[in-house]
Design goal:
Layout lengths: L5 E2 L14 E3 L5 E2 L5 E16 L3 E4 L2 E4 L2 E14 L6 H15 L2 E7 L6 H8 L12 E8 L7 E9 L5 E9 L9 E3 L2 H8 L1 E4 L4 E3 L2 E2 L6 H8 L6 E6 L6 H21 L7 E7 L14 E5 L5
Parallel strand pairs: 16-17
Antiparallel strand pairs: 1-3, 2-12, 4-7, 5-6, 7-11, 8-9, 9-10, 10-11, 13-18, 14-15, 16-18
């Protein structure tokens, strides 16, 4: 399951997390590298975007590509940290193969010093210093995603292994304006936040039925955080606003909470850490715009 995680390109993350990870809950356009961790994400709507189609160089004090094209669209920017056992070459080969199989059109490709200065890529093109590293360790690929009767999407990939031997894959996905929206994520700070606030909503949890989670739901990262805190206990609280009698909605919400609990237990979380609760439509308000049918994680405070 984890080896085939995908990131959503028709949906875009609207917040930036400079460190840690975020879990993606929707799938489309490009598989991310196996076991890679999303460390940063950004979204820009309806942007004038420069598609780099040649080696970078400095001209009259300004960094410019030898060739480029201007396009307009919604831009998703995603940085993934790669597991230490893989090289930049492994990552680049993975994406090359993946894009080829999907039938994407290669527009430009470069490896190592033929790409130009990594400093130019990191600071002038991508404006993210995390992507700076030795020139010999960089890879770049630009592809066009065919779309019948519609404007094509474009994907720019940059892979870099930094001096500290950390490898990152960076993707900029440009789609026709108006086709992107929020990606649901669970960030690495979720349990840190919960220790401060006492509770947090878990985004991206949807159901095929009250007893069964949607196949797109992936709680593996949350499960790992719970495993890292074996001495803490949490309520899983299900909220449900729908037509029906109160007793019926309370019963259904308990079933939903238990479905989430069972899923986390299947992922290795100790059953003693999680207590299922359902309160139906009795607490419809929260800090988010859409929260009537949410799942919350509530920290059980110690009596000591």
């Amino acid at each position: 399951m984890k080896l085939r995680k995908k990131f959503a390109v028709l949906l875009a993350i609207t917040l930036v997390r400079p460190a840690g990870y975020a879990q993606l809950t929707d799938l489309v356009l490009a598989d991310r590298f196996p076991d890679s961790v999303l460390s940063s994400a950004e979204f820009e709507a309806d942007t004038n975007y420069r598609l780099v189609l040649g080696r970078l160089q400095r001209s009259r004090g300004v960094v410019v590509p030898e060739s480029s094209e201007r396009i307009r669209g919604d831009v998703s920017k995603l940085i993934f940290e790669i597991p230490r056992e893989y090289s930049g070459e492994d990552v680049f080969g993975y994406f090359q193969s993946n894009f080829y199989v999907k039938g994407y059109e290669k527009l430009f490709e470069c490896i190592g010093r033929e790409c130009g200065s990594s400093n130019y890529w990191a600071n002038d093109i991508f404006r993210n210093r995390v992507l700076y590293g030795p020139e010999r360790n960089q890879y770049f690929l630009n592809v066009r995603v065919p779309s019948e009767g519609k404007e094509p999407a474009h994907i720019s990939l940059y892979v870099i292994t930094r001096g500290n031997r950390r490898t990152y894959s960076y993707l900029e996905i440009v789609e026709p304006s108006g086709t992107s929206g929020p990606i649901t994520t669970i960030e690495d700070t979720i349990l840190i936040d919960i220790e401060k606030s006492g509770a947090t909503s878990l985004p991206g949890i949807t159901f095929l039925s009250d007893e069964q989670l949607d196949e797109s739901v992936d709680l593996s990262e949350l499960a790992q955080e719970l495993l890292d805190r074996p001495d803490q206990t949490f309520y899983l609280v299900s909220h449900l606003s729908a037509e029906g009698e109160l007793d019926q909605l309370l019963a259904r919400s308990i079933i939903r909470a238990e479905a989430v609990r069972s899923h986390l237990i299947d992922l290795g979380v100790d059953e003693s850490q999680l207590v299922s609760k359902g309160i139906g439509p009795l607490a419809p308000l929260c800090a988010h715009e859409q929260c009537a049918d949410r799942i919350e994680l509530v920290l059980v405070r110690s009596s000591n």
